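Hello forum,

I keep getting stuck at the same step: I have a sequence, I want structure tokens, and every attempt I make locally crashes halfway through. Rather than fight my setup again tonight, could one of you with a working pipeline run this one for me? It's a single chain of 244 residues.
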Amino acid sequence: MTISPEHELLVELQDLIIGTGSVAEFLGGLSIMAASSLSRATGTTVECGVTLKHNKKTRTVGGSTERAIHLDRIEQQVGEGPCIDALKVKAPVLLADVRTDPRWPVYQERLFDEGVLSALGVPLDLSDDATAALNFFVPTTGVFTEATINEAVSFARVARSAVLLAVRVATAEGAADDLSAAMVSRTAINLACGIIMGQNRCTQAEAMTILTKVSSHRNQKLRDVAEEIVKKVSGEEPTTYFDI
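Reply #2:
Ran it on my machine without issues. Output:
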């Protein structure tokens, strides 16, 4: 059975997800793969940066080289360019020649100073609250032909599912971390209230009032005060003894 190039790419991307520890690290690896793919297709050195828009915030999260990251961040700094427009229109946006294109004068001047003459933004539509774009850069013109753009779009289409998976995994892990922290905090406060109730022979509401007053008087977080009380009595940090 013949394995298609698209299937091979998807397998490589899935392996990349497993082998990386964060979305930023994964997208950095993705940008290297994207740059290599277009460099092979064009016979020219192509650099690639990755922009991620998540929860209405847009930022550069990776690049095939440090220079690619720098070039991508220029667009974020000036607030204009093909990558930003690609995210808006959800279609590839080409900057064929920074010396003649009239659309983004500030950005184009910055690229020219960096020795870049052409750029291409290719979006990856992920979900309602997350989108990403590949930002390709070359030091000459005439590289981003129709065939090259189709190659970039094909890569983005295959990569989309892997990027979406990476973002969802990171979001789930972040939510789990937040929940874990909240549960540990709640455990400490409940234990501290129990200790205060035993020491003062008061109700839980009265114990909570005492704990809150101490927190306010010391200008410390409620959780920190609670953990201090528990540790003073038990000699150990409070722990939540069940899995999420």
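The beta strands are 47-54, 57-63, 93-95, 118-127, 130-138. If your local run keeps crashing, start a new thread with the error log.
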